[in-house]
Amino acid sequence: MAAINQQTEPAGGWSGAVLKRIGYLLLTAGVLGRAVFENGLLDIRQYDNAALLAAMQGSGQVMQLATLAIVLQGIGLCAVPLFTFALVEGMRHTANVRRYGLRVALLALASEIPYNLAFEGRWWAPDTRSPAAGLLLALLMLWLMDHYGKGENRWKSGLLQAVILAAAVLWALLLRVDHGVVIVALAAVLWLLRGQPLWQLLAGCGVSAFLVTAPLGMLLVHFYNGARGRASRLAGYAFYPAVLLAGGLASVYLL
Questions:
Q1: Tens-digit pLDDT profile for residues 53-78
Q2: What's the start-to-end Cα distance of the chain, in Å?
């Protein structure tokens, strides 16, 4: 990737700020699909698989709501590569890793209860964690790779990086982070292949394919032009928990 700069109107491609704005729109679509249409209007928790299929066959309205919920959630998954890429770029260019890590940790903490409300219909869900927790795990993994996964011996460094990645994947599974395995694996791919946009695209599409529509988000990442662009840091970090909270409250109100 080209070195990041302060351009606000780059000559071609999209700046990091533009990619984030696209990501916010995709996230909003995903929250609408899951919280409002699936959990609110459809109230999918009242159905088992057989009952849902029967309801869809017997009611055009149920079919429409279910279809729209699926489509919107598919759109929302495209945001995963965008924000994972933003995390990797943040790690590459931050002047203070500790402060950056603290901001990501606060995002994960602030997102947890709104995520539970929007996606699980309850304030506390001990059996799941928001994808923001996956970003925090990924950042810790990248820091470990940067500090302990480098050396003159390529085989030793590669083995150590593989162990760090495996540990991050294991923690994502143990903590039951939604999309956590894909997030940490994708972050590792983007980090290890930094400076090689074509290989990032190909490998990133392969990893994100586990989320079905997410490779489309990798195609958007490929248009990154290396410019940071102008954006409000506070608004950026506040957006995700805010839209989750709005979606969660809407789902409760609609029930």
A1: 898 888 899 999 999 999 999 999 99
A2: 47
